[in-house]
């Protein structure tokens, strides 16, 4: 499944101009670091969701471009901060900003990106869009902290897992779709529909990420990275609730104390697969995918609606 770039090719070029302008600073080190970040940017899925959501509901406006820039600024800020929190030396196959400029400069860069995003909205009176995205940042922080708290006990129920990812991952994608819809309609009902669409897509996105820990098609073998970080993913939660008491005890002990031992890690991965954890998580992901596509059916058929549907399929069918 391809990303539907041709539908918004011109809009993406205009967005790039807005985004680069939003990053500019009179401080040389800031420009040096932000140029490095921009050169190694990802697929920019979230700005695509903003622009396609805006285009689905009405005309793309200057407010739409600012919303897309704000979303990308906030997303980049969280990634930069995550590299410090996770002590990560790599980001998308390159040295992270943390590896090159160390913790102090990296935290300040993240703060700068957040401030630039806030000012971008405030300077143009995009108050509702700022409110939508600020709510997402708060929820992302709550989700991360809840995950941190629950990782200590490794006793997370499925409903807690969904609360974590609804906040941690899905809230930003939900807000991207809502901000796009608001920028072209100023209609709260339509905006809420698009928020729900984005949230369901975001949950499916996170479950797909969970599955890469066990079935990474790109590198040919499961990574087990989430297990190493003691993150409770949906396949693992399901497995822990299915296996006998002794196997559960052993799995928890390995995740807590022996997660760097490759052989023991592989044993946990095999147990997760054997218990049906991967199958179950895949089914759940597809349920949320179906729900998000059903939300789209509320809008008139158009190439843009089809493009959003393709983007949802890309999120769940991607290989990495």
Outline the fold blueprint.
Elements: H1 9-23, H2 28-39, H3 45-57, H4 62-85, E1 90-91, E2 94-95, H5 97-122, H6 127-151, H7 158-185, H8 188-212, H9 225-228, H10 234-242, H11 245-257, H12 262-274, H13 277-296, H14 303-317
Antiparallel strand pairs: 1-2
Textual characterization of the structure:
This protein is globular. Helix 1 (9-23) crosses helix 4 (62-85), helix 4 runs antiparallel to helix 5 (97-122) and helix 10 (234-242) packs across helix 12. The mean pLDDT is 92. The chain has 320 residues and is mostly helical. Strand 1 (90-91) and strand 2 (94-95) form a beta hairpin. Strands 1-2 form a two-stranded antiparallel sheet. It is 76% helix and 1% strand. The longest helix is centred in the middle third of the chain and has 28 residues, at 158-185. It has 14 helices and two strands, in the order ααααββαααααααααα. It has a domain at 7-212 and 306-313: Orthogonal Bundle (Farnesyl Diphosphate Synthase).
- What profile does the largest beta sheet have? 2 strands, antiparallel
Distance between the termini: 13 Å
Strand fraction: under 5%
Query: What is the alpha-carbon Rg in Å?
Result: 20 Å
Helix fraction bin: over 70%
Order of helices and strands: HHHHEEHHHHHHHHHH
Looking at CATH, the homologous superfamily of the domain at 7-212 and 306-313 is: Farnesyl Diphosphate Synthase
Average pLDDT across residues? 92
CATH architectural group of the domain at 7-212 and 306-313:
Orthogonal Bundle
Under CATH, the topology of the domain at 7-212 and 306-313 can be stated as: Farnesyl Diphosphate Synthase
Report low-confidence residues grouped into runs of 5 or more: none
- Shape label: globular
Compute the number of helices: 14
CATH level 1 name of the domain at 7-212 and 306-313: Mainly Alpha
Order of strands, main sheet, comes to 1-2
**How many runs of DSSP E, i.e. beta strands?**
2
Classify the secondary structure makeup into a structural class. mainly alpha
